[in-house]
């Protein structure tokens, strides 16, 4: 069987190999995940940050991100902290890697079992601010330009435990406080807020991209704050991730993105990117590339629990290769003359109403619309050829066009 010209072995031999210019990044917590789950213990030995930097760089990754405690133990003394940071910075230099994003672990230690910024305890809320300021300092020291806030335990188990209006205000106070801290320190940081509907709490505040976008415009410094949406988190809500990301892009608020995959609205699975929802993630990559998104393509995912260290690197390479495969397929889809012709017909680009509507509101537009004669029945009989268009999409994704 002959392959189509665009899929010859010669043209694809190294076509999808990741390189630094792709701006792929992973978290220390992703490749170093040891496979523990609620029903089973660790299956892999610890992986050092330096080893993670080395191997990811060899595979073609560009950046590595971290929570404060991914690198520095929770109770590390100042001398130990400085030694660890020094060795990590040397590894970044040795292997040509950067830290584009940093964040704070405000969910693992028992002190945060009721949340951090929204905890009922004032002492816990104060400690969360202290810990986050230190972590921001660390992130800036390592070169991070984006700082992510994931409220892993900012929610409730017993609904009566918190007034949700008070909780929203507490979150606002915390983000305003930390924004001003970064400004006063002269840090060139952007903050990105990460939504998630549930887990580990039964219900979490700010569960979706839309909730976060609305919240941003109530803050003191909305210009420096955007979102960090994650594929699996929106799928857990049964939502279309592409549409949420599009809204963030249109608002100029896509500051960072977490790429992974998910089997339905279950627990957060953090699967290898593109391993399950191929069609939706094809359109996600197409959206990011067409929109000119120039931030990190960050993979917040884990290797299967069945894997040893070799499998971890298979997983990491697979995430990057799949993104590049989708990117190339999206390019071919948009270069397909049949697809483009059909899109022109669907959008009725020659209609006089296209030009009229593009003018926006004016007295003249109002007059023309009020005087226009429409035939709703005829418009209702119109077909849109979406079956044909969708089949073209499927054929491109499956590699037969």
Structural features, described:
The chain has 401 residues and is an alpha/beta fold. It folds into 2 domains: 17-329, TIM Barrel, CATH 3.20.20; 337-397, no CATH class. The protein has 17 helices and 10 strands. The strands form 2 sheets. The protein has an 8-stranded parallel beta sheet with strand order 8-6-4-3-2-1-10-9. The protein has a two-stranded antiparallel ribbon with strand order 5-7. Helix 11 (278-290) links the parallel strand 9 (258-259) and strand 10 (297-299). Helix 6 (122-141) packs parallel to helix 7 (164-184), helix 10 (241-250) runs parallel beside helix 11 and helix 12 (309-335) crosses helix 17 (386-397). The chain is globular and about 75 Å long. It starts with 8 loop residues before the first helix and ends with a helix. The model is unreliable at 1-5 and 7-12 (pLDDT under 50).
Low-confidence stretches: 1-5, 7-12
Q: In total, how many beta strands? A: 10
CATH superfamily descriptor of the largest domain: Divalent-metal-dependent TIM barrel enzymes
Average pLDDT rating? 96
Strand content: 5-15%
What is the first-to-last residue Cα distance? Answer: 15 Å
Instruction: Give the SSE string.
Output: HEHHEHHEHEEHEEHEHHEHEHHHHHH
Class by alpha and beta content: alpha/beta
Helix content: 40-55%
| Sheet with the most strands: spatial strand order | 8-6-4-3-2-1-10-9
Largest sheet, in brief, is: 8 strands, parallel
Specify the overall morphology. globular
The first-level CATH class name of the largest domain: Alpha Beta
- SS field, number of helical segments: 17
User: What does the radius of gyration come to?
Assistant: 24 Å
Give me the CATH architecture of the largest domain, please.
Answer: Alpha-Beta Barrel
């Amino acid at each position: 069987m002959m392959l189509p010209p665009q899929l010859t072995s010669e043209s694809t031999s190294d076509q999808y190999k990741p390189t630094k210019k792709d701006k792929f990044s992973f978290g220390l917590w992703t490749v170093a995940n040891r496979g523990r789950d609620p029903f089973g213990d660790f299956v892999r030995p610890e992986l050092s940050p330096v080893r993670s930097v080395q191997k990811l760089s060899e595979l073609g990754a560009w950046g590595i991100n971290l929570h404060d405690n991914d690198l520095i133990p929770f109770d590390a003394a100042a001398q130990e902290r400085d030694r660890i940071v020094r060795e990590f910075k040397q590894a970044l230099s040795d292997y040509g890697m950067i830290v584009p994003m940093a964040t704070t672990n405000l969910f693992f230690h028992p002190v945060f079992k009721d949340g951090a910024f929204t905890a009922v305890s004032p002492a816990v809320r104060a400690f969360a601010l202290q810990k986050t300021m230190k972590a921001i300092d660390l992130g800036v020291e390592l070169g991070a330009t984006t700082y992510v806030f994931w409220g892993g335990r900012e929610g409730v188990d017993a609904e009566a435990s918190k007034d949700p209006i008070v909780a929203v205000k507490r979150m606002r106070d915390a983000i305003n406080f930390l924004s001003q801290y970064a400004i006063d320190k002269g840090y060139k940081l952007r903050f990105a807020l990460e939504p998630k509907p549930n887990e580990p709490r039964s219900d979490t505040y700010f569960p979706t991209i839309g909730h976060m976008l609305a919240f941003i415009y109530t803050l003191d410094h909305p210009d420096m704050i955007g979102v960090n949406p994650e594929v699996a988190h929106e799928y857990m809500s049964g939502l279309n991730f592409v549409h949420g990301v599009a809204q963030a892009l249109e608002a100029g608020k896509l500051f960072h993105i977490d790429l992974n995959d998910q089997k339905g609205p279950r627990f957060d699975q953090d699967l290898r990117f593109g391993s399950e929802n191929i069609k939706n993630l094809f359109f996600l990559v197409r959206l990011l590339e067409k929109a000119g998104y120039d931030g990190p393509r960050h993979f917040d995912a884990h290797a299967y629990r069945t894997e040893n260290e070799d499998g971890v690197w298979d997983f990491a390479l697979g995430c990057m290769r799949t993104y590049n495969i989708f990117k190339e397929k999206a390019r071919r889809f948009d270069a397909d003359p049949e697809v483009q012709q059909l899109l022109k017909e669907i959008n009725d680009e020659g209609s006089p109403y296209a030009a009229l509507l593009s003018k926006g509101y004016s007295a003249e537009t109002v007059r023309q619309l009020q005087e226009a004669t429409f035939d709703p029945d005829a418009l209702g009989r119109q077909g849109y050829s979406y079956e044909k268009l969708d089949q073209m999409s499927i054929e491109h994704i499956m590699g037969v066009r």
